[in-house]
C-alpha cells in the first residue's frame, strides 16, 4: 500500500490548500513566486472546485486545472489533488432536492454554504463517483500528483427518508433480525417494540428523550455512511493510481467519525488543527490532537490544515502572536507530522472564509503573517532528516468513539462530565509531566506499553475489558477515571453499574451511587481537591491503597483506590494533583519524562534521534539538557542546556 | 363512587412502577423476594406496555401480564393497572402519521421517545379505547387489581390540523357565535377579526406576539382534550369495574392541566414528585405540591412517583443523601398521602431512563438505595393507623390554572414575576411559620377558613371576586399579593388596571403604574425589603394601615395597604419579612402554628390525631412538644419534646 | 411635493395612534373630551383596521370610519390616515397561504399576530392596493385628512418560493448577467457557481456559513421589496391627494430598511422611538435616533410613536418616572421634531399590546400618566414658533445601511464589534461633548461640514472613498474608527485589508492584523484605555502624529494615527477619552459646543433661534447661559444662566 513516504520523499511537506479559481491567472504566477520564496513544496488543489470542473450537469472544464497542475509541476511543487465532493454545485440540489440533508426537525440544508449533501443519497453518490473518476482518469498520470485528498472534513448528518432506508439496511446487517434489534435497543421500555423494519427511523424529533441505543446506532451508521462515501471515491482513484496515497482530512477530536475505523481505510492520516491562539491550553490541546492523529496513523501523519493567523468562525478571532505559528508548526513535527500545511495559501477576498487567514494574508507579501510563514518554511527545510521517523511512548491513553457517542446521551448522571473535557484534563496532566503518550483503542494490543490510562470509557465491550485485565495480568499498570465500564456495546448498563471484572480489578465492592458535582463545586480529598464528579464506593477488603474524601456526605469513602497495579479515580483531581499523581504512577512503573526538570510551559519530545524542546511561554527560559547537542535550527552546538526565547524551539541531535 | 380507601384497605400503600417486560422471567421471582423484603404491597403495571400487549395492530399478547397479575396476587401485592396509552407502539405512528403531534412551528414529534400522540387524533383515540377495553375486559375481575391508572403524566400539545378542527368545535361550544369569540379575543385589535370559523387556528408561529386570549383558550382546550382522552378511558374501565378507583398521575405544579377540573373526574388524585435533593428549598417545594394535591383530592391522596435516588433529566443529577428518601416519604404521609410509590421498582439497564434510579438500583440488593427503601417500607407499616385520616387547616391559599395561563402571556409587565415563583414564595413563608395550609380555587366555598391568601391571581372571574368579597364580609381575613384581579375571564384588563371592587376592598384609590424590578434589584420599605415588583399606588383616605416605600421614585407611597381585614402587598417581601407578616396576620385572625417555637428547618403537621415532626436539617435538634406522646416510629414515649437526628422524624400520638 | 409643513400648519402636532375599533362608540366621545383637554391636534387612524374595513374578501365597512373622520374634524383634530396593510385579515392567509412569509428554515408565519405578509406575494400586493385605493377614494377629500401613513414599521423577511422568484428578478436587474452575479458573489469559492438563474435562492438554512454577498443582496432585496410595497401604496394615495404628505414610520436605528433610500421616497420622515426608561444612556440613544431621522428628513420630522409609560415587549417593562415623558418629548422637538405622537391614545384592554401604555392609561384620566401627557401637550403649545425651523451642525457622522448589512455577516473578525454599538459610542461622545451632529451618507455632499466622523463603515464604494478624500482635500477634518473601508460594494475585501487610498490618507503603511478584544478585555494606550478592538499597524514615515499602544503584543504600535487632518483610531477609547479626543479635534477644526461649561447630563441644542437646555439628571442644576433670554416654557426672563429641576427643560429665545 502507498504511504506518506511516497509523498514526502525525504522532505517535510510544506504548503496548503490552494483555491486558484478565486483569482485571475496573473495572480497564479505571483503565487508561484511567493510559494518558492516561502519554500512551499506541496499544494492541495480542487477541494471546492466541483462547480468549476462541472459547471453544469455532465459538463467538464478541466483546462484551468491542467494549467495549474503543469504550473506546479514546472515549479517543483507537488499537488495533493482533492475530490471536490464536499460542496456539490447548486445544480445538484436544484435538480435533485433529495440530495440535501435534513436535520432531526426536518429542516433542509440548502446550497449556498457547503457540505449540503446527504451521505445516503444515491444520486449524490453517483455524481460524486463520476466527477472523481473524471479527475482520476485525467490526472492519475500527471507528474505533479503526490496524494489524493477525498472530500473535506466529512461531518454531515441526515435524518431524511433516504437516510432512513439506508439506516434500516445498516441495522439489518448489524443485527440480522428485528428481534435482535429490539433486544439491543431495549424497546421493551417505553413501548418501543418494532414489529416491522419499516417502523425503524432515524432519531427524529421526539416529545421526550430519544432511545439512546437508537441514537448510538445512528451515530455509528452516520460514521459508516460517510466512510462508504469516502472509500467509494478512494477505490475509484486507487484503480487509476494504486501507487498514490489517499487521505481524507479529519477535524480534530471530532465526534462524528469513528477515527480508528476511518484511519484503517486511509493511506495517510491527516488532520486539521485550529487551537485558539488565546487559549492558555492551546499547546496542550494541539499535543493531544497530534498524539491521537499519530496513533491513528501508527506513524508519521499530515497536518493538512492550520491557520497562519486568525480563523473566522469564533465569536472573537485572534491572530497568532509573533512566533506562534512557527512554534505550533514545529510542535506538530515534534509529535510526528511529516507535513505542515495551511488552509489556505492566499486569503480569500470574497466568500464565507475571507476573514480566515491565509499564508498570504490580505496584507500581502509584506504582512507579518507571510513573513512568519516564510521563516517557518525555512526551518522545516532544516529538519528534513526527521521525515519518516517515529516516536516511542511507554504510556497509552485509551480512547474510543463508540464510548464517546454512548456517553453523550441526553439523560445521564451529569451533562458536565462529557468525555472531551475529561480526556483533555488527563492528557494535559501527562503532557505537563513531560511524559510522551500514544493513544490506543481499548481492544488494541497494549503489550508495548507500561502504563495504560483510561480517562473515561463509559462503554466497553467484553473484549476490551478482557484486554485490560490481560494487560494488568501481564504486569502493566492501569489507571482509570470514573464512568468507565458502565455499559456494554449496546449501551446496556452492566450489573452493579460498572463491570464486575473491573470492580474486582480495582477493589470496588459496591458502587452505591454517583455524586456528580455542580459547576464551581469541588470536593475535598486527602491531599487534593476533586472536581466534576465523586462516587459513593465501598472498597473491597483487599484493596492496596485508598485516598479518602474528607467532609460532606462521602467523608471517609475512597476517592482513589488501588489494587496492585490497577488504579481507580472516582473524581477528577485539580490539574496539579492529577499531574503529580500520574507522574508518580509512571515513575513507579519505570516510565520517566523525556527530560528531567522541565520548566513550566516547556515541552520536550524525542522523535527518532532528535530531541525537540519547545518553549510555549512568553518569557525566555533555559532548559537543562544533559550532554552536547547540535541544534538543527540554529546550526550551533549546545552543552548541558539550551536557551529558548519566547516561543523558541531547539531541535537537538546528540 | 370508589375511593382511595378501596385500594388502601387500612394500610399505606408502598411500592412503585414495575416494568417487568424489561427483564427475563427469573428476575420476576427475584423481584418478588425483594418486594416482600421491602414491604411492598402495591405495584403499578403496564404504564408503557402497549407494544408488548399489542405488538402489531389488533394483536393481543396478554399471557405475560396474566402471569404477573397472578404472581402479584399470589404474593399479596396489589396491582395498580395502567392503560398503556401514553406511549403508542411505533406502528401507530407509521401507519397513521396524523396521530403524531405538531409544535407551533409545524415540527412533528415522532415515536422513539414517548407521548408521541395527538390528543385530537380520532385514530389515536380509537386505538387507545380498544386496548383499554381489552385490558378492562381481561383484568376487571382479577383479584390483584386495586386501582386503574390512566395514561401517564398527560402533557402533550398539538398544533396540527386535526387539533385545529377540534379547537374550532371546542370554541363553538364555548362561545356559541363567532361574534362572541371575536369579542372575547379582542380581534378588533391588530385586524384579527375572524369572518368564518375556518380561519380560527391554534397559536402557530407568528411574526410578532400571539393574541393572548387565543393562547389562553388554546391552553384551556388542550387541558380539556387531554381530559377527554382520560375520561374516555376511565369510562371504559368503569363500565367493567365500577367498584375500582381510577386515577391519572399529575406532574407536580404542572401548568398544562386545569388541576381542579381534572381532580373532579378522578376517584383518586395522584401526583409525581421529584424535588432536587440538592435544592435547599426541596422540602418547602414538596410540601406545596402535597398541600395542593391533598386539596385537589379533598382528603388522602397518592404519591404515585418519587425517586429513590437520582433522576436523569437534570443537567446534574444528585442522589439522595442518607435518610432523605425516608424523610420525604414520611413528609408526604404527614401531608395526607395514603400511598408512597416510586418510579420505578428496578432501575432499567437500557433505554432513556436507565440513569433514573429505582427502588432496586444498579447496585442491587446490597446498594444503600435499596436498604433505605426497605427502612422506609418498615416505617410505613408502623403508621398504618394514619390511613384515611385528614388534615385540618385554617388557612387557604388560592390557586387557579386559568389565572396562571393568562398571566404567562408573552408580552406583560415583567417576565420575572410569573405565578410559580410567587406562589412558592408565599407558601414557603407560611410553611416556615409552621402554619398548615390548604389550597382552594377562588370560586370554592371559603367559609371554613379564617385566612385566605392570594399570592397572585392575575385573572379573576366576577364570581371569584364576589366570593372574596363575601369571605371578608363574613369576617374572614384576606391577604393578596400584586397582579391580582387585573383581568377578567377573557383576559380583558379591568378598568383601572385592577378590579374596582378589589381596589375598594383594599383601599386603593388609583393604581397609577406597575414598577416591576429587575433581577438583583430590591426596593426599600419601612422595615423590610421588597423584591420582584413594586407599584405606584394612591391610597384611599379610609385605609386602615399602610407601610410605605422608602427612597426611589415611590418614596412614601404604600408598599402594603390594609383596609380592615383586607391586606394588599404591592411587592414581594424578602422571605423572613413575608413569614413574619403572615404569622402576624394569622395570629390576629386567631390562627396559630401547629407547634410553638419550632426550630428552623423543622416541620410539624397534625394529621388526624397524629403529630408529625420532621427535621429537614442536617444537624440533630430538640423540638419542644408539650405533654407526653407515644412515637409510633420508635415505639418510645417522649415528654415535652423530642430529639430528632439529621433528617429525623417522629410521629407522635398523644 | 407636499411637506410636513402642510400637516403642521404652524403648530407642533401632538397626539397618537387611535384605534377606536376597540371601544364602543360612547368611549369615542369621552376620548374627544380628553383629547381636547390634553391639547391633542392629530390622531392616526386605521393602522390595524383592515379586518374592520374589509371583514370578508371584497366587503367594505367604512361607516364607522366616516363617523370618526367627521368627529375628529368637528373637534379640530387632524387625521393621519393609515393604510391597514401591516396586518391582513385572517381570511387572506386562510384563502391564500402563499401570502404568509417563511423564515430561513421554512417555518410559516401565521395570522394571529401581525405583519404576517410576504412582501413578494402578488396576491397580498393586489389586496393591499385595493384596500388602499378604497381608502384614498373615500377619504382623499375629507377635510380631517392631514397625512397618509403607509403600513407600519415595515420589517418582514420572506424566504419562500415567491420571494425566491422576485429575488431572481431583482438580481437580474442588478447584475444583468449571471456571470456578473457569480463574480460579485465570489461563487468560485466553495463551488457555488450558478449555471442558471433558477438555482439562485434566498439564503435558506445551510450546513455551514452562508455566502455573505448572497446574504447582503438578500438584505438589499428585502429592503427594496418592502419599499416597493410602500411606494405602490403611496402612488395610489398620491393619485387621489397629490397635496397630502405621505409617510411610513421607521423603527429606530432599524437594520432592515435602507433608511437613506426610503427617506427619499417619503414626504415626511417619521420614526418610532422607545428608549428604556431605565437605560442610563436613554437620552443619548434618543438623541442619536433623532439626529439620524432629522438628517434623513433633511429638516423637521415626525415622532410617530413613543410611549407615555411602559412598553410591553421587554423582559421587565419600566414606567416613565415623573417628568421623563415631557423631557424626552421636548428633546425630540429640540432635535427637529415637528410632531410628538404616541402609540397609542387609549391603552388597550385586550390583545397583545394591552400592557403597552397609552396616553390614557388603564388608570384613566386621574392616572399620573395622563396628567403628564396633558402637561406635555400644554408645553408644546408654548413652542409653536419652533415649527418648521432647522438645526445647523458642523459635524456629520456617516452611516450607511449597506455597510451595516455587510458588516453583520456570520463569520468575521469579531461578533462583538458590530456597527450599532460602535455608532452609539461615537455619537454619545459627541453628544456628551455638547457638539451638535448631523448624519450623512458617505456619498452625500459633505461640503457643509467642518468635521466628518466615520465610526465604522466596513463597506465603502469607490464613490464614497473619493468623496471622503475630496472632503479632506477641500480642508475638512476626517476622523475614522476601525473596520472602515475594508470591503467594496460586493463585500470584496480590498487589497491590503483596507482601501489603499484610505491607508494613504491616514498614514497606514501596512495593516498587518486585526486584534479584536474579548468581552471585559481592554488595551492600554498612551493616556487612555481602548476597548473592543485593536490593530497591528505599521505607520507610514510621514504620519503627523501617533499615540501608541503600551504593553502586550502591540506595544509601541500606533493606536491612533493622524496624517494632517485625517485621523484614524484603531481601537474604541473608553467614553471619557473618546469624548475628550473628539472635543479636541472639533476645536482644532473650529467647531465649538452649543454652550460652554455644560454640567454632566445636560443637553443643549440650538434650533432656529431657540436654545433648548435639557437636564437629563435627577438632581437640579444651574446651567450657565451668557446673556438674557426669554424662557418660552415659563414665560420668565433668565440672565446668564438657567436653573433646571430634575428632568427640567428651558427653551430660550435671545
TrEMBL record, chains A, B, C:
Presence of the UniProt keyword Transcription in the record: no
An MF annotation (GO) of this entry: beta-galactosidase activity
GO cellular component, one term: beta-galactosidase complex
Beta-galactosidase C-terminal domain segment(s): 602-653
Domain Glycoside hydrolase family 42 N-terminal intervals: 17-382
Organism superkingdom: Bacteria
EC nos: 3.2.1.23
Domain annotation Beta-galactosidase trimerisation: ranges: 393-591
Keywords linked to the UniProt accession: Glycosidase, Hydrolase
Any one of the GO BP annotations: galactose metabolic process
Matching InterPro entries: Beta_galactosidase_C, Beta_galactosidase_Trimer, Class_I_gatase-like, GH, Glyco_hydro_42, Glyco_hydro_42_N, Glyco_hydro_b
Active site per the UniProt annotation: 153, 305
Tagged with keyword Hydrolase: yes
Catalysed reactions, as listed in the record: Hydrolysis of terminal non-reducing beta-D-galactose residues in beta-D-galactosides
Residues binding substrate, per UniProt: 114, 152, 313
Assigned protein family: Belongs to the glycosyl hydrolase 42 family.
Protein name: Beta-galactosidase
Organism field: Streptomyces glaucescens
Amino acid at each position: 500500500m502507498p504511504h506518506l513516504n511516497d509523498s514526502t520523499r525525504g522532505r517535510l511537506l510544506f504548503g496548503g490548500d490552494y483555491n486558484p479559481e478565486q483569482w485571475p491567472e496573473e495572480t497564479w504566477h505571483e503565487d508561484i513566486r511567493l510559494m518558492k520564496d516561502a519554500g512551499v513544496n506541496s499544494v492541495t488543489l480542487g477541494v471546492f472546485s466541483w462547480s468549476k470542473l462541472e459547471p453544469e450537469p455532465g459538463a467538464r472544464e478541466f483546462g484551468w486545472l491542467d494549467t495549474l497542475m503543469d504550473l506546479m509541476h514546472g515549479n517543483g511543487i507537488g499537488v495533493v489533488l482533492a475530490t471536490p465532493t464536499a460542496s456539490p454545485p447548486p445544480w445538484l440540489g436544484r435538480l435533485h432536492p433529495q440530495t440535501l440533508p435534513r436535520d432531526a426537525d426536518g429542516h433542509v440544508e440548502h446550497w449556498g454554504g457547503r457540505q449540503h449533501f446527504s451521505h445516503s443519497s444515491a444520486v449524490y453518490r453517483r455524481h460524486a463517483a463520476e466527477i472523481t473518476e473524471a479527475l482520476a482518469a485525467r490526472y492519475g498520470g500527471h507528474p505533479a500528483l503526490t496524494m489524493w485528498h477525498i472530500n473535506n472534513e466529512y461531518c454531515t448528518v441526515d435524518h431524511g427518508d433516504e437516510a432512513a432506508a439506508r439506516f434500516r439496511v445498516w441495522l439489518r446487517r448489524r443485527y440480522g433480525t428485528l428481534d435482535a434489534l429490539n433486544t439491543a435497543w431495549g424497546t421493551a421500555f417505553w413501548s418501543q417494540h418494532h414489529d416491522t423494519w419499516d417502523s425503524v427511523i432515524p432519531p427524529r424529533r421526539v416529545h421526550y428523550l430519544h432511545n439512546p441505543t437508537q441514537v448510538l446506532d445512528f451515530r455509528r451508521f452516520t460514521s459508516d455512511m460517510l466512510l462508504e462515501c469516502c472509500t467509494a471515491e478512494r477505490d475509484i482513484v486507487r484503480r487509476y493510481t494504486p501507487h498514490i496515497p489517499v487521505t481524507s482530512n479529519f477535524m480534530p477530536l471530532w465526534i462524528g467519525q469513528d477515527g480508528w475505523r476511518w484511519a484503517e481505510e486511509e493511506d495517510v492520516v491527516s488532520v486539521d488543527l485550529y487551537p485558539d491562539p488565546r487559549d492558555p491550553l492551546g499547546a496542550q490541546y494541539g499535543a493531544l490532537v497530534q498524539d491521537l492523529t499519530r496513533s491513528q496513523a501508527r506513524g508519521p501523519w499530515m497536518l493538512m490544515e492550520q491557520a497562519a493567523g486568525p480563523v473566522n468562525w469564533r465569536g472573537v478571532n485572534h491572530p497568532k502572536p509573533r512566533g506562534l505559528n512557527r512554534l505550533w508548526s514545529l510542535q506538530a513535527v515534534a509529535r510526528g507530522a511529516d507535513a505542515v500545511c495551511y488552509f489556505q495559501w492566499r486569503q480569500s477576498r470574497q466568500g464565507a472564509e475571507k476573514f480566515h487567514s491565509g499564508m498570504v494574508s490580505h496584507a500581502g507579501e509584506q504582512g507579518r503573517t507571510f513573513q512568519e510563514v516564510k521563516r517557518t518554511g525555512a526551518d522545516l527545510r532544516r529538519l528534513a532528516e526527521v521525515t519518516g521517523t517515529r516516536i516511542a511512548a511507554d504510556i497509552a491513553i485509551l480512547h474510543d468513539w463508540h464510548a464517546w457517542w454512548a456517553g453523550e446521551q441526553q439523560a445521564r448522571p451529569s451533562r458536565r462530565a462529557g468525555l472531551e473535557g475529561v480526556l483533555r484534563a488527563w492528557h494535559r496532566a501527562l503532557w505537563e509531566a513531560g511524559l510522551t503518550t500514544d493513544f490506543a483503542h481499548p481492544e488494541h494490543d497494549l503489550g508495548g506499553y507500561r502504563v495504560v490510562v483510561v480517562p473515561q470509557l463509559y462503554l466497553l465491550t467484553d473484549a476490551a475489558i478482557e484486554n485490560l485485565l490481560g494487560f494488568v495480568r501481564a504486569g502493566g499498570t492501569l489507571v482509570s477515571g470514573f464512568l468507565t465500564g458502565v455499559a456494554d456495546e449496546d449501551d446496556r448498563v452492566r450489573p452493579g453499574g460498572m463491570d464486575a471484572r473491573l470492580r474486582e480489578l480495582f477493589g470496588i465492592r459496591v458502587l452505591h451511587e454517583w455524586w456528580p458535582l455542580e459547576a464551581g463545586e469541588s470536593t475535598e480529598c486527602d491531599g487534593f481537591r476533586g472536581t466534576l464528579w465523586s462516587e459513593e464506593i465501598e472498597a473491597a477488603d483487599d484493596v492496596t491503597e485508598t485516598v479518602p474524601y474528607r467532609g460532606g456526605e462521602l467523608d471517609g469513602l475512597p476517592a482513589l483506590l488501588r489494587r496492585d497495579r490497577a488504579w481507580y479515580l472516582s473524581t477528577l483531581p485539580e490539574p496539579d494533583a492529577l499531574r503529580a499523581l500520574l507522574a508518580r504512577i509512571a515513575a513507579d512503573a519505570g516510565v520517566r519524562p523525556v527530560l528531567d526538570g522541565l520548566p513550566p510551559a516547556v515541552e520536550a519530545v524525542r522523535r527518532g534521534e532528535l530531541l525537540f524542546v519547545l518553549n510555549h511561554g512568553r518569557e525566555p527560559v533555559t532548559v537543562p539538557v544533559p550532554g552536547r547537542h547540535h541544534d538543527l535550527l540554529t546550526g550551533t552546538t549546545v552543552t548541558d542546556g539550551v536557551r529558548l526565547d519566547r516561543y523558541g524551539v531547539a531541535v537537538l541531535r546528540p
